[in-house]
């Protein structure tokens, strides 16, 4: 159970800040600065370098930068619009926001994918932190032991656990210190790159392993940008829920997770093109010596720990949907999110090698879910949700659908995934001709959204009234 | 507090919060009008698509 005295105001606050109780305006932490700082700290992690590094394989500096920034902005906006508006207005946790479209239990199916996304990304960037420690020791002429990367992952888990268990307020404080440091180090890394290699060198550098068809290279790089933007899906609701105004819910996400993320990815793209490595703990040492390498490692540590702690926090809130965990102590919940991360301590490199497949999986998953949520919130419900029904577990609830599942929404997700693979197969890079004009993520976003809209209008119209019914202010079976 | 009373207390708290959020004036959550949507759609959809086509 929660550690606060049952029934006390402290317990109620705890069950909203560390649980699924809708957050009232007075409980929300983020003003404009806090929202920008947290979004920035969340955005900047070594996933930027992973993404920029992939782009360097296919396209040059200018095309790559356009693809990464433009693709990210489009992806983030499409995915963030419904979540940020809805979670901010109603103080909702993200999986609760999925209930009007997917159903009471259908949202739990989304929860599984959500947790795989959040925990998987956290594991990958913690391995990159461990690799960073190893790279610096190698640069110092030391022979690091085999277990060092795993130990780095364990250290990262422990630091993230400390932050995530202390709550949003401490996260905000920590981010207000880390964010300026990250800005300075990122700018310095770019400065190092631009002074060691001229801008002309960067712009004229050829991509590392492109395909013969330049249009296909460009299309894959753009898809990488859009899919990266959409893969912020997991963190959007958590950030928006804690903001006080609508503008603070969406503008920081678009600016930091879209534009700034794309720009930092571009630094990795540039380094990949001219140095041959996207990992700053590798390329900073030859450029500026060990001190620079240590600085890069500090960057990787700070960036990855803040991002992982936000991911763990959001995952913990989502785990509250699991029966039996509704009112468990927050530390216990966060400890549960860490259990799967322990596999990254034991097999860091083996699991890291699944990174490509994981990125591809993310691309196919987020787009259809995002398309359905956008259509549902803006075009079917006209931004009006029935909060009573979201927290109602009884079958009479407005969002119960068929045995708790909206088969139409779940089926549309599957159609979206099939669409994605039909347009572009990320495992083989086989592409339909339409891929040269429309990124696969956009196709997998639009088509399920349209099918869902038509199905809800023609088949399940009673489930999508444009005005929220008010069942008399009482919940029969609360699901909290 | 017995478990039953505790559950009843949590239900009451949840219902109070829902009432509060549903009855709150939309303006309390910050303004967000047509101008904001115009800025977002132009800067996040229209301009990026034009850029992407231009550099293809």
Please describe the topology of this protein.
The complex is a heterodimer of chains A (480) and B (56).
Chain A: H1 9-17, H2 32-43, H3 47-58, H4 61-90, H5 94-102, H6 106-139, H7 148-166, H8 168-196, H9 199-204, H10 214-230, H11 233-241, H12 246-274, H13 280-319, H14 330-346, H15 348-352, H16 355-380, H17 387-390, H18 407-423, E1 424-425, E2 430-431, H19 440-458
Antiparallel strand pairs in A: 1-2
Helix pairs in contact in A: 2-8, 2-12, 3-10, 3-12, 4-10, 4-11, 4-12, 4-16, 5-6, 6-7, 6-13, 6-14, 6-16, 7-13, 7-14, 8-12, 8-13, 10-16, 11-12, 11-13, 13-14, 16-18, 16-19, 18-19
Chain B: H1 3-23, H2 34-54
Description:
The complex is a heterodimer of chains A (480) and B (56). In chain A, 71% of the residues lie in helices and 1% in strands. By secondary structure, chain A is mainly alpha-helical. Chain A has a domain at 27-354: Hydantoin permease, CATH 1.10.4160. In chain A, a hairpin with a 4-residue loop joins strand 1 (424-425) and strand 2. The longest helix of chain A is centred in the middle third of the chain and has 40 residues, at 280-319. The mean pLDDT of chain A is 89. Chain B is 75% helix and 0% strand. Chain B has helices at 3-23, 34-54. Chain B is elongated. Chains A and B meet through helix 1, helix 4, helix 10 and helix 12 of A and helix 1 and helix 2 of B.
């Amino acid at each position: 159970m929660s550690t606060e005295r049952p029934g006390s105001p402290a317990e109620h606050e705890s069950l909203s800040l560390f649980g699924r109780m809708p957050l009232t305006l007075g409980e929300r932490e983020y003003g404009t600065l806090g929202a920008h700082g947290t979004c920035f700290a969340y955005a900047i992690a070594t996933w930027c370098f992973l993404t920029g590094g992939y782009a360097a394989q296919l396209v040059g500096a200018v095309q790559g930068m356009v693809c990464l920034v433009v693709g990210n902005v489009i992806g983030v906006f499409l995915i963030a619009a419904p979540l940020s508006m809805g979670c901010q207005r109603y103080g909702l946790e993200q999986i609760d926001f999925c209930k009007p479209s997917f159903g009471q239990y259908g949202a739990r199916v989304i929860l599984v994918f959500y947790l795989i996304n959040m925990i998987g990304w956290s594991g990958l960037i913690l391995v990159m932190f461990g690799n960073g420690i190893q790279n610096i020791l190698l640069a110092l002429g030391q022979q690091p032991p085999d277990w060092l990367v795993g130990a780095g992952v364990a250290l990262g888990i422990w630091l993230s656990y400390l932050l995530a268990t202390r709550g949003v307020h401490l996260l905000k404080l920590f981010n207000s210190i880390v964010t300026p440091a990250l800005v300075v180090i990122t700018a310095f890394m770019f400065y190092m790159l631009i002074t060691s290699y001229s801008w002309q060198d960067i712009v004229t550098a050829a991509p590392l392993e492109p395909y013969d068809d330049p249009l296909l290279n460009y299309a894959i790089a753009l898809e990488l940008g859009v899919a990266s933007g959409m893969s912020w899906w997991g963190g959007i609701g958590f950030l928006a829920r804690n903001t006080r105004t609508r503008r603070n819910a969406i503008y920081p996400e678009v600016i930091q997770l879209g534009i700034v993320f794309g720009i930092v990815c571009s630094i990795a793209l540039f380094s990949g093109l001219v140095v041959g490595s996207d990992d700053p703990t590798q390329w900073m040492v030859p450029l500026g010596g060990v001190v620079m390498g240590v600085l890069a490692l500090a960057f990787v540590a700070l960036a990855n720990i803040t991002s992982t702690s936000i991911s763990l926090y959001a995952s913990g809130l989502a785990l509250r949907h699991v029966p039996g965990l509704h009112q468990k102590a927050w530390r216990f919940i966060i400890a549960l999110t860490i259990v799967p991360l322990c596999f990254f301590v034991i097999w860091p490199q083996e699991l890291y090698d699944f990174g490509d497949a994981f990125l591809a999986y993310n691309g196919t998953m987020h787009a259809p879910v995002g398309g359905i949520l956008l259509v549902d919130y803006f075009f079917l419900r006209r931004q009006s949700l029935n909060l009573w029904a979201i927290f109602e577990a009884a079958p009479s609830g407005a969002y119960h659908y068929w045995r708790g599942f909206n088969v139409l929404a779940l089926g549309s997700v599957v159609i979206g995934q099939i669409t994605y693979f039909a347009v572009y197969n990320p495992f083989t890079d086989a592409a339909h001709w339409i891929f040269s004009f429309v990124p696969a993520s956009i196709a997998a976003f639009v088509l399920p959204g349209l099918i869902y809209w038509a199905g809800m209008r023609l088949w399940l119209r009673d489930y999508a009234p444009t005005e929220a019914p008010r069942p008399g202010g009482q919940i029969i079976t609360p699901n909290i | 507090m017995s478990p039953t009373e505790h559950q009843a207390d949590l239900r009451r708290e949840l219902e109070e919060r829902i009432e509060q959020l549903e009855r709150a004036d939309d303006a309390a959550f910050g303004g967000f009008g047509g101008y904001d949507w115009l800025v977002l759609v132009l800067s996040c959809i229209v301009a990026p698509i034009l850029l992407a086509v231009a550099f293809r």
